[in-house]
Amino acid sequence: MMQENTGAEVIAEEKSYAELHRPASEFNSRSDYLDNELIIMKPRRWRLNLPGRDFRFEIEDLVPAIAGTIGITVMYSAVMTSWANGFGLDANFIIENVRVEMLVSAFFFCIITSGFLNPRANLAGNHGPMIPLIGMIAASGAHPLALAILLGIFGLILSITKGGSRLVTLTGDGVAGGLLVFLGLSGSLSQINSLIDWSSAVGVAHVGFIVLFVNIILYAYLARIGKRWLAIPACSVVAVVVALALGAPFEFKTSPGLPNLNPAYWWLSTETGWKLGLPNMQHFIASLPFALLAVAMWSPDFLGHRIFQELNYPTKAKNTLMDVDDTMTGCAVRQIVGTAFGGGNVTSSWGTYMIPAAIAKRPIPAGGILLGILCIVIAIAGYPMDITVWRPVMSIALLVGVFLPLLEAGMQMVKNTKDSQSAGITIFASAVVNPVFGWALTMLLDNNGLIGDAERAKKLSFADRIIIPLSAFIISGVAMAAVGMLPGIPALL
């Protein structure tokens, strides 16, 4: 019997996705059909993947596409607002730069790269943890284009050397679980407070609580019936309806239009675009620690996204898990290209796309193509951007689509006392400084057997126990010290 199963698996390995595909009607449930799609897919790495031959579009792909579009519009708006405040630029700069980033990332990196060329490379999105630092980056004398070039170079080095996947492999379940719990809890509290503060500021203090209460009930119901993948569109629509019904103010402001995509407009003059001109050597020196810090943050960020796939995909769906190193390649190239066109985004793996996609049991390519199309439509139309960045939609979408799932996934990963030790130290250290510090320190302790599973540490090589974790801790620590992120310690630069 064992030999028959092995033979069947060998035959399946030799067949293409199109040959192995079966219609949904042949399965007992929709979930079984989606599981089978994940198992039989055979994405072509850095070669052309085609709909029908290599993957299919399903109704579930709309969920991560919508979620990712909402998330990225919110994030890009926050990034460009921070840059504008730092350099004294006006509201027109913010709108035009958001549009540049949406168009460039949508076409080149959602549709072309992750959709058709490498469906194992997650979409290149926004680096959320770097947003609070943008004001500091601008004040330090750094230059957005210099920062992008350095970040891209460091990212390519990490991806070529397979450093990203190595760091992910060396992160134990307890460390990863603690990281997800911290990110999920802190992010949830942030969005809850933001919504309540917003409702008070606009004169409808009760709206925030009622929107949250209604969506708690809806989210719990969707989880109960196994339809949690519908949470983002369903909860966002409910947030809009409830908030408007209760008198929350809203108006359309962003008219249709196209941004200037000429690099010369953005970078060659001190009168147009960023009004900074091209960067000089001093700009590169000032940008260096921030670029190092951004790349140091990539591994824990990517880790969280891949874990979501592993928790929601069937065990045999190895071919559809995101490849960490290929994702880093995409992010590094996207950082340089996007900024060359004039954009100001700091990029990372696209979490507001990947997490809903994993919950919906969908692979990367089809949803990525749909997301790219949605981003292009919204960037040109203008008015939908106002809806996606309206506080009730923004906070609820991020809560149910990103932070609550992160929290749940983290708790699922902490399975025993040893894992809970590592998770607890990760949360503690993350609260003291930030999640990167918590991840790097606890990974070092965990891989040496000082906390967590001592037997696991004994099986690791000297490089895996000492050299790699210590290097990650030192590099991230020095970068944080340089820019003043260590509490009570003045910035070294």
UniProtKB/TrEMBL annotation:
Keywords of this entry: Membrane, Transmembrane, Transmembrane helix
TM helices/strands, residue ranges: 62-79, 100-118, 130-158, 170-189, 201-222, 229-250, 281-299, 364-383, 389-411, 423-445, 465-486
Transmembrane helix is among the record's keywords: yes
InterPro entries in alphabetical order: DUF3360
Provenance organism: Reinekea thalattae
Coiled-coil region(s): none
Protein name per Swiss-Prot or TrEMBL: DUF3360 family protein
Superkingdom of this protein's organism: Bacteria
